Amino acid sequence: MASTTTASSLQINNDLAHKNLDDDGREKRTGTWVTASAHIITAVIGSGVLSLAWAIAQLGWIAGPAVLMTFSCITYFTSTLLADAYRAPDPVSGKRNYTYMDVVRASLGGRKVQLCGIAQYVNLVGVTIGYTITASISIVAVKKSNCFHDHGHGADCKPSNYPYMILFAVIEILLSQIPNFHKLSWLSILAAVMSFAYSLIGLGLSIAKAVGDRHEAKTTLTGAEVGPLLSSSEKVWKTFQAVGDIAFAYAFSTVLIEIQDTLKSYPPENKMMKRASLIGVSTTTLFYMLCGLIGYAAFGNDAPGNFLTGFGFYEPFWLIDFANICIAIHLIGAYQVFCQPIFGFVEKKCREKWPESKFIMTDHTINVPFCGEYYFNMFRLVWRTTYVMITTLIAMIFPFFNSFLGLIGAGSFYPLTVYFPIEMYIARAKIPKFSFTWVSLKILSWTCLVVSLVAAIGSVQGLVTELKKYQPFKTE
């Protein structure tokens, strides 16, 4: 009787365990298209939305909106191709692939896997360094705004960025102890709300300026005009840079597979991911169009690089302060979205290499008030803290890193957002060479390669200009 009871208990426990596991034996995924959309919006709508007025100013009323819509459609199309590659060989019932490298390995194999890894992780590291710089600029903008309000718009208000980079790093060290992407939903939703908040504030201030009595901004069909203040070569460089900025502003392929890996199994992950991509890209396009075009109407050809941190507006100072705080909070969440794939990759490799190490493998259970049990790991604490500290140090040494980030974006946009999704689709669907579909996809791929190359050239020119003015650890 006792043995029967024990057997029944074991069966119940096995059934419960099975219910809490997915088909690959991992903890059951609970993500939905809502959480995936929040992750995408957090990753895509960065504070770069506030610099789109500058990009439109370089291109004008015709090319500006056309480039925005073109890259919106390209990003959505290639994201649907990538979503179908999460499981292989069948997009619904095939074996799961947990990272972009796994997807490329399953579909293409060979050296392309290593090339994919280099492009993806260099881009992710670059983005986290860039976010450290941008977040500190936003917090400094709050101090500047208050200073200008108290002492006048001509006051010499130049607080140092470095204390705020350190503050940002401390916050990220704490948040980096979140074990994995699956636990990030609440942070992504908060960050997405913040991105809507500062985008709407920037939009509202632009509308107020555009319809104001003293509005004298000059706009043209072709953007900034060549003249005494802008040479023809500078016009070309800035046009290249603007096209690149818009192309890279949509890219979220570096984290798409990791986002898809958070989704529950039914409805099929690829269908939910396509829906989330459509919502994410559509929402992004709407905000980009509104902020870019109305911002251009407000500031004209002299639009600043960022009209909140660059002080396109001075008043109401409290509203600008709030918008910049929203930017900083959003970047805190976005940093985690981009660094979690790096954390996961390194920790997986270390577990595979040193499976007997207690330092790496042992989790300690800690009861956190109001949050339940937290699984603490010493290796995770040391490695992730070290990563945040190193990226912060690089941000402090190279405060012009955002110019370098444009170059990284140019180098990773083409392979990750366009080349690999298209090549994997051609391989999976066995599309014949020189068929209409094959030729169309190749033309799209080659066109995006040209865009990446010209954007890279523009970024190099901007980087050279920044290096000429470079002074390490300058505090003003």
UniProtKB/TrEMBL annotation:
<feature type="transmembrane region" description="Helical">
    <location>
        <begin position="278"/>
        <end position="298"/>
    </location>
</feature>
<keyword id="KW-0029">Amino-acid transport</keyword>
<dbReference type="GO" id="GO:0005886">
    <property type="term" value="C:plasma membrane"/>
</dbReference>
<protein>
    <recommendedName>
        <fullName>Amino acid transporter transmembrane domain-containing protein</fullName>
    </recommendedName>
</protein>
<feature type="transmembrane region" description="Helical">
    <location>
        <begin position="443"/>
        <end position="464"/>
    </location>
</feature>
<keyword id="KW-1133">Transmembrane helix</keyword>
<keyword id="KW-0812">Transmembrane</keyword>
<comment type="similarity">
    <text>Belongs to the amino acid/polyamine transporter 2 family. Amino acid/auxin permease (AAAP) (TC 2.A.18.2) subfamily.</text>
</comment>
<feature type="transmembrane region" description="Helical">
    <location>
        <begin position="62"/>
        <end position="86"/>
    </location>
</feature>
<keyword id="KW-0813">Transport</keyword>
<dbReference type="GO" id="GO:0015293">
    <property type="term" value="F:symporter activity"/>
</dbReference>
<dbReference type="GO" id="GO:0006865">
    <property type="term" value="P:amino acid transport"/>
</dbReference>
<keyword id="KW-0769">Symport</keyword>
<keyword id="KW-0472">Membrane</keyword>
<feature type="transmembrane region" description="Helical">
    <location>
        <begin position="186"/>
        <end position="208"/>
    </location>
</feature>
<dbReference type="InterPro" id="IPR013057">
    <property type="entry name" value="AA_transpt_TM"/>
</dbReference>
<feature type="transmembrane region" description="Helical">
    <location>
        <begin position="318"/>
        <end position="338"/>
    </location>
</feature>
<feature type="transmembrane region" description="Helical">
    <location>
        <begin position="36"/>
        <end position="56"/>
    </location>
</feature>
<dbReference type="Pfam" id="PF01490">
    <property type="entry name" value="Aa_trans"/>
</dbReference>
<feature type="transmembrane region" description="Helical">
    <location>
        <begin position="121"/>
        <end position="142"/>
    </location>
</feature>
<feature type="domain" description="Amino acid transporter transmembrane">
    <location>
        <begin position="29"/>
        <end position="464"/>
    </location>
</feature>
<feature type="transmembrane region" description="Helical">
    <location>
        <begin position="162"/>
        <end position="179"/>
    </location>
</feature>
<keyword id="KW-1003">Cell membrane</keyword>
<feature type="transmembrane region" description="Helical">
    <location>
        <begin position="239"/>
        <end position="257"/>
    </location>
</feature>
<feature type="transmembrane region" description="Helical">
    <location>
        <begin position="381"/>
        <end position="398"/>
    </location>
</feature>
